[in-house]
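Translate structure to sequence.
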């Protein structure tokens, strides 16, 4: 599996990191993370350069890590500061440290060339800082599927009619065409369903009884972030695209962290523009989304199992794959750019 390394990925929610060691695997790289005394989350490769014992099996001494095998100790910059029994420290005695940055209750990590890590490039959404919106962090959903398939699912409004018929979709949207376009490294896929029955999600939470106009806008920020803008409004309002905020509008954010070739962690959260001062509303939305995302997990894991089996034909492609095709092309360009940079450096 090939990954885009020069990019910010989500290491976890801020609440996942404290003074004790936390381990994670991102892009097949084993990591050990901890929160230093000044609050910064420190991330190292989880491997001592001496005998390869995971550093997470050692102990923390102040802001340093001591290997649990022979006591080599490493400072916050990754350099070895002590080798028991000798004064000299071999120049190769160091561990790689990965840049991190914390924002909006999320810890981000840069897995590529540290010199290129710029916090200004971290994904942001204006609504995360807008007091008119309520944000709720959801779960870290572990999916036994490669991240490309997970991302395909998150730029595909067409599947909701069939995978989520009681939650996020219904039959009214089955034959509504999709609009797909690319904007730089972002893919946008959208459609409106006019004057149709509300989906189960908005029956349970939005309070709609009559027909509604509803929308799906899927924004896939390659390689691993998806923003899904979905909502409903009374059909009599005849909302235009730029007036979606007058309806009940939800943003579902998905931060995909590739673990390895067959595993992805999908950390999701949601924002809403109504009932912003009612915590119970956020809890109900989370419960409804858990049902839907469990449905996605079952589909994606079944696909992954089948993809690992021999098959004698190329997969069929249809019009609704436009978003996925854009996304895969962007990832391919990112990978090629990294390869070209590496070759030029060599």
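Result:
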């Amino acid at each position: 599996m090939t990954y885009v390394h020069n990019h910010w990925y989500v290491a976890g929610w801020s609440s996942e990191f404290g003074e004790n060691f936390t381990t994670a695997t991102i892009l097949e790289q084993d990591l050990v993370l901890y929160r230093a005394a000044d609050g910064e989350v420190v991330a190292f490769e989880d491997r001592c350069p001496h005998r390869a014992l995971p550093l997470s099996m050692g102990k923390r001494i102040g802001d340093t890590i001591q290997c649990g095998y022979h006591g080599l100790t490493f400072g916050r910059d990754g350099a070895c500061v002590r080798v028991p029994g000798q004064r000299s420290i071999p120049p190769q005695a160091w561990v790689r440290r990965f840049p991190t940055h914390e924002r909006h209750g999320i810890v981000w990590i840069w897995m590529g060339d540290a010199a290129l890590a710029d916090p200004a490039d971290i994904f942001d959404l204006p609504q995360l800082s807008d007091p008119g919106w309520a944000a709720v962090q959801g779960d870290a959903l572990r999916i036994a599927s490669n991240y490309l398939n997970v991302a395909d699912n998150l730029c595909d409004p067409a599947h909701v009619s069939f995978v989520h018929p009681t939650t996020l979709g219904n039959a009214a949207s089955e034959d509504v065409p999709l609009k797909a376009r690319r904007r730089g490294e972002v893919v946008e896929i959208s459609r409106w369903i006019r004057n149709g029955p509300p989906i189960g999600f908005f029956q349970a939470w939005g309070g709609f009884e009559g027909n509604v106009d509803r929308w799906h806008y899927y924004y896939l920020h390659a390689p691993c972030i998806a923003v899904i803008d979905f909502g409903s409004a009374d059909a009599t309002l005849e909302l235009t695209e730029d007036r979606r905020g007058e309806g009940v509008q939800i943003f579902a954010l998905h931060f995909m962290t590739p673990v390895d070739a067959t595993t992805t962690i999908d950390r999701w959260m949601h924002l809403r523009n109504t009932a912003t001062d009612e915590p119970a509303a956020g809890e109900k939305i989370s419960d409804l989304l858990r049902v839907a995302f469990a449905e996605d997990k079952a589909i994606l894991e079944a696909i992954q199992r089948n993809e690992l089996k021999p098959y004698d034909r190329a997969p069929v492609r249809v019009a609704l794959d436009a978003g996925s095709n854009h996304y895969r092309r962007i990832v391919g360009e990112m990978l090629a750019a990294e390869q070209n940079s590496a070759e030029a450096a060599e």
